[in-house]
Write a structure and sequence with these properties.
alpha/beta, Rossmann fold, disordered N terminus, 25% strand, 7-stranded mixed beta sheet
């Protein structure tokens, strides 16, 4: 569920990863809950900040029709191009270049805003949240969906290796504990909290966990970094792939009111 941890390949691979994550049971569930928390109404203007390839623009557009608009914002030209391709000709859907720290909207000009796995990457999450508050109208809602990678756990008899792997993965994310910090940061920015919902992101299948959590990829990186021994990592992965798997972390859905 996090591109910076699980996939650093070509842009096409990043888009493929995002699509795969969104299609998992965990992805489908949290995205449904995230959109529901925005309480979307016909005629509203909704901004999806860090929209990537436009994964969620369609599901946001339906509830605000007729008369509403959904604007996807991203700073990556390749993501913008893919989002425009996917939603070419879609009524009420627009894609703009922009950054969460400098949104291309006037003060108090949008009804709803959301971020999905974006604040874990930004340099200054508190400043970014303040910028979102700037563009929201009074009473507008800001929905956030962010992981807490410090809660990552992988069940295995070798607890020390599982812990070392989890710490290594969390250490690769700029804001690894952002999920638990959202309520505090929103309050500092002047928002009123509407809801905080923890979502267990649980994986029971090795193939899915490997694709989403990057078990093999990150174990290889941990070996290269000297965090894990090669033989220990190989044995750990062998057990995980052969036995019933239990791995996961906590995802937080937060809705704040302007």
């Amino acid at each position: 569920m996090v591109e910076s941890v699980c996939f650093r390949g070509a842009m096409t691979d990043q888009i493929s990863y995002m699509d795969t994550a969104a299609a998992t049971d965990v992805g489908v569930d949290y995205k449904r809950r995230s959109v529901a928390g925005l309480d979307l109404r016909p005629g509203q203007t909704v901004v999806d900040i860090g929209c990537g390839p436009g994964t969620d623009l369609g599901r946001l557009a339906g509830p605000v029709a007729p008369g509403g608009s959904v604007i996807g914002v991203d700073r990556d030209p390749s993501m913008l191009a893919e989002a425009r391709r996917r939603h070419a000709g879609a009524a009420g859907v627009e894609v703009r270049a922009g950054d969460v720290n400098d949104l291309p909207f006037g003060d108090g000009s949008v009804d709803r805003a959301r971020v999905d796995r974006l604040l874990q990457h930004v340099r200054d999450p508190e400043s970014a949240i303040g910028e979102v508050r700037r563009v929201l109208r009074p009473g507008g809602l800001f929905g956030m969906a962010e992981p807490d990678w410090d809660t990552l756990a992988v069940a295995d008899d070798d607890v020390a290796t599982s812990r070392a792997f989890a710490r290594f993965v969390a250490g690769r994310v700029r804001n690894s504990t952002i999920g638990r910090e959202l309520p505090r940061l929103c309050a500092r920015a002047g928002f009123r909290l509407r809801s905080v919902e923890p979502i267990p992101a649980l994986f029971r299948d090795f193939g899915t966990a490997d694709r989403i959590l990057g078990l093999r990829r990150n174990a290889e990186r941990a070996v290269e970094a000297g965090v894990l021994l090669d033989a220990v990592a190989a044995n750990w992965l062998g057990r995980l792939s052969a036995a019933p798997l239990m791995a996961g972390f906590t995802f937080y859905l937060v809705v704040a009111e302007r």
